[in-house]
Each structure stands twice: as C-alpha cells, then as structure tokens.
Fold these 2 entries.
Entry 1:
Amino acid sequence: MSDRMHQTRLEQYQISELEIQTRKNLFELSDAELEFLYKYRLVIDGYLEEVVSHFYTLLSRSEYVGLM
C-alpha cells in the first residue's frame, strides 16, 4: 500500500497498524488488491451505495454478525 494512502487512513480514522492489519485479514485483502481499489476509487464511488447495500445484506445473512 502506498505510504501516502496508508498515512491518510491512519490520520482519517485514527486506527492503529494492528487494527488495519486485522481488518485486511478479515476481508482477506492483499496490498495489491488495496492498491487496485485505490486506483479505481473514482469509478467505485459511482457504485458505492450499491456496494454498501450488498455488504450489509451479506452481513445480515451471517449467524456470527449481530446488526443494530
């Protein structure tokens, strides 16, 4: 992951390196995949509402995730 992108996320969300690594592991995301997502973020932004909706639909199906 680029240093600039990495630093921006740390500053924006005020989360530790360990938390970032844990979240990457949970979503099974590699640095290469994160770079790809960052590169195409403007395209992805056009579909963000659909992506978030789909994400929460998947979460709601999981017996291990309790939603508010």
Entry 2:
Amino acid sequence: MGVSRETEETTLNQVQTPAIEVTNLVKRFQRRDGERVQAIDDISLSVNPGEFVVLLGPSGCGKTTLLRCVAGLEYPDAGRIDIQGKTKFNADSKLVVPAEGRGLSMVFQSYALWPHMTVFENVAFPLRQMKVEKSEIKRRVTGALKRVGIPHLADSHPNQISGGQQQRVALARALVPNTGLILFDEPLSNVDARVRDELRFELLEMQREIGFAALYVTHDQSEAMTMADRIAVLGDGKIRQLAPPEEVYERPATRYVAGFVGTINELEGTVTELHAGGGVSVDTAIGKVGGQVGAGSQYVVGDQVAVVWRPENVRVTLDEVSGVNSWRGSIDASVFVGTHREALIDLGAEKIRAFGMGSKFPDAEAQVSATVSPEDVWVLPRD
C-alpha cells in the first residue's frame, strides 16, 4: 500500500522543523547609570534536530543572554522563538511561554544540584515534576546514571562527590526527560583540565548516540572546535560568523573572527593586483602578499584590507627561498610546547609566528626563510 502525498509532506515537514528557531531577537539591558545596552542585536539562528551548535565568544558578547532567552530565563524585547515547531515567545503578539513550558532541558555551569537530595533524587526530579510513574522513574534514572558512568553514586549527596561527578549528575538529569533538546551554559568550565577533556568526548558520544539537539555556550575555542557541528561566533550581540568549525578556523568571515578563533598572523595593506580565480596581491610592510578572497567578496585596486594566515601554515627552512609569500628573517624566540614548537620570526618591518615539529625546527637566532602558500592567506576587509 503506497504512502499518500499528504503523509509524505507531513513527514518532510517534521524532518525539516528546527529544534530551535530564533528570529530577529533583540534583548536590551539598562545599567545602573541609566545606559541602555543591546546585549542581543537582531539575531536569527536555527538548530536542526540532532545538531550540536556552539555559541562561542568572549565575556559580554551576548552568548549566555541568547541561551537564557531560548530557555525562558530572560524575556527579549523583540523577535520570536520557536522550539520544536511551537512558538514559545513572540514579542509582536506578546506571547511568553515560561521556562517550564518550553519542553527542553538545561545543564548549568554551577551544576544547580539540590544539596539535600541524593544523586538519584536529583536526576529523578524533572520526572517527578512531569508526574511519571515510580517504576518508570526508577528505570529511566538508573539508565541515565549508567549512561554517564556513575550508577554507584545513586545514594550519595552532591557534597560527597567531585565536581566532575556532579557535572555527570547534571547531565543525567538533563537526559532523563527525553526532550530531544538540551541547552548547555558553559557546563565544563568548573572542572579540571583532565576531567574536562574526558567529559567533552563522553558528552559528544552521548549526543551522537541519543541524537538530541544541543545549543552550547562556551568561551573555550578548543571545546567549540571539538564538539560543534556548527559554531556561531558572537561579538557585540551579533553573530559574526555561523559555519562548521573547519570553515570558521580556515576561512574566517571577518578580522574579529580571525583574531578571536585561534592564533593568527595579520597585516594591513593595500590591494595592488587582482588575479583570475579570486586571488589578489596586497602591498604590506613586508612586501607583496598574495592571498584568496572569499566567495561574494569583491575588491578593487587601492582598497585597504587585512591579510591573515595561521602560524601552522608557515614553512620555515634554513635555505633561501624565492617567490611569492617568501621572506628572509631570523628567529627571535623558539619554545617547545609539547606537540610542536612555536617561533617568532623577525622579518625586519614585522614579526610573524610559525608553528612546526620540534626536532625539525631551526633554533633561535637562525637565519631562515618563511613561506606561506597564497591558498592559506585570507584577505579580509580592514574594518
């Protein structure tokens, strides 16, 4: 028996319905001195079912405010929020659904565990609020504790376990309602580096296995790169770039993104030549630099631009090298950081950074050639 066209369309619409849809959201705060601050400035963002989207940015960029607006802990001044196809906030119609009616779970930076409750009781709390039967509560809580690796702590209280274990409890509590959507507010910032690395991969494995959608706030670039399907880099209340991690890192959309994500070499200059295929030549303090222009970007001779490239894309040799993007200089300093060696190279008018494998990298004070391929140089507007 065939499937009706109506059923096919319904199924297609269900598949395409975002887990979160934020449209033209604005949130303002008033400081004590009376100054009005626009924490979220006309942001639109969607998170697809099963997708892990990370909000990345420095303190004060608006990422936590955006998360709290989605959660229903802050009410925006304008815009709309839809969660799993249902409108939960609409400034135009004055619709405001409170946090408990939004059908999502949240993991906080501070864990937010009830100190007087056992681990089991903390995890069971949202199920009891939902009036789930006792037998089902026991089954789901036991399963969640096993999933996060702490079934043996069910009868312990939060003050009897470590920070990493408390965060596992908070994660188990977010998993048990099976909402299909979890918000994370810098959940790993209060645990030590070793536990943080463990929890990153465990959380990612669980997300891939269970398939819940996630909106995750962090200021940690490594965390964002490790976990995200897409990263939204925020600055001054706006999304400066929204793309997969590789694109954000290798092809930053703006100087702000290039400077915030990872380590960068950056020079200002003037466009002197345009090449077929989108490349340009830029006159800088160290001479002519050839680079690539992003799709949709257009420059003319005389434009003021910035050229950026990553230190790991700099090839350093003792031999003299001629050609485009090759410069002669000396190594000012070289330090070993475990996985690689980092060097500061003095080119005379400017100094650039280069990363390379330790045993093959020239020592400090050596005269070297530094070369970077035009394909690894990105040309961006100066402002």
